[in-house]
Specification:
This protein has 285 residues and is α+β, with helices and mostly antiparallel strands. Helix content is 17%, strand content 19%. The protein has a single domain, classed as Replication Fork Single-Stranded DNA Binding Protein.
Amino acid sequence: MSQFNYSDYQKVVEKAQSGPSTNAVKVGFFKLKNNGDEALVRINASNIEDLKFATVHKPAFGKKFEGLGTGFTPVSCLNEVGSYSDTCPFCKAAADGHDVVGKAVKTVYVEMLVAYKDTTTGSWSAAQPVVWERPAGFSRELATKLKDYGSLKEKVFKITRQGAGKDTKYSLDYIPVFDKPELVSTDFSAFDNFNINKHSYWEKSAEDLQYFLDNGTFPQEEKPASESKNLDQLISTPAEDKAAEKALGMTAESPAPAPKYDDAPAKEEPAVEERPNRTFTGFSF
């Protein structure tokens, strides 16, 4: 195998961590698909400071940010909150009417444990960790809920989707009959060391943003988000560690069994060198 040092290894890991993962297995994205769909949730917030915000640019409706996996992942704005100067090339492009780059929008990312309702059976799924992306103004409703009920980790709320398309609305209601640990887990450990900026949006330099404006795509020195695992969002198991070591060629090969001889030795066959097929999962060289 090719030799590498610790510095090379760190570069591989940093590249794999450089953007959000759209296929992260630990934390997903909240979605109610149809009018009337329901979910039970616990919200990972004990006070208003626990909520996470970001100002991001989204592609214009029906457009894509080429070079970012599916292309629909938002990109972080480089301006300070409430500022729209030329410091951020995307802000200037949006102001000039760019056909792909949308205006910067303020967003709150709500970490939740969610049990979805099966519309056929009426039963609830096992709770799973997700992030709900909402306009920043939604934080006012959460602030009211915090004032009325205290820590939202301790209460189960029901979210119901109402309407479709641009007319979609969501209700968030506390219904005591659902407030049971057996319905929605109280284990928020999936969010330990969780970074929203490596899950829900990309952070790019001014140079990368300008490159997109000049070329219609982002630089391709790294894999798209949909093809790489975000290592910060995953908790590896011993089996996964072993698989990663094997992928990097860090495991020792098992010694070949000692040959057995008959009275008349067989004709020796020429040695054939076999090249192992290695799959590099979660890394981009």
